Amino acid sequence: MYLITVFGNLLIILAIISDSHLHTPMYFFLSNLSFVDICFISTTVPKMLLNIITQTKVITYEDCLTQMYFFLLFVQLDNFLLTVMSYDRLIAICHPLHYTVIMNPVLCGLLVLISWLIVVSLFYCTGLGVYLSSAATHSSHSSATASVMYTVVTPMLNPFIYSLRNKDIKRSLRRFFGMATIKGPIVLGLRKCQLLQHSKH
Asked: Which domains can be identified in the chain, with CATH numbers?
């Protein structure tokens, strides 16, 4: 599930970067969301997998503090980016003629930047302290299952929900993989032609 999440989101980022038709505000925010999902799942799952392999549940206070901070940061960043994406779609639907003027590259970059600076200040000043000061409780099997659902399953499904059902993304991925599969036979065919010409001479 971790590998599916990472590779699925990386594919989306690669498709958006490689296709100039996807260099629009909507896909700019989508590529940022994919990047944040990779970061989000990478804060907990590698450690969880290590714990499963080594059969240990030990974590140092410093590691726990760091993991909790980045986990909360990326959760809220996900929420802010989804809000920004909603605003982008609102402008596209309600003001289609002014869309490119309103959602210019400077504003798009500023919205992503604002999503970041807000998250850091919010959790550095308030949220982190609240979570760390709360009394530690032993989680049951059901709460552990619920934790896996929102920390692993949701980021894994995001590429399918937000991107892979999208016609533009699918077309871009087909073009990307099509070029990779076509390029190989073309190169081999050119080499064979060159060898045949040399053998005739």
From this structure: 2-167 (1.20.1070.10)
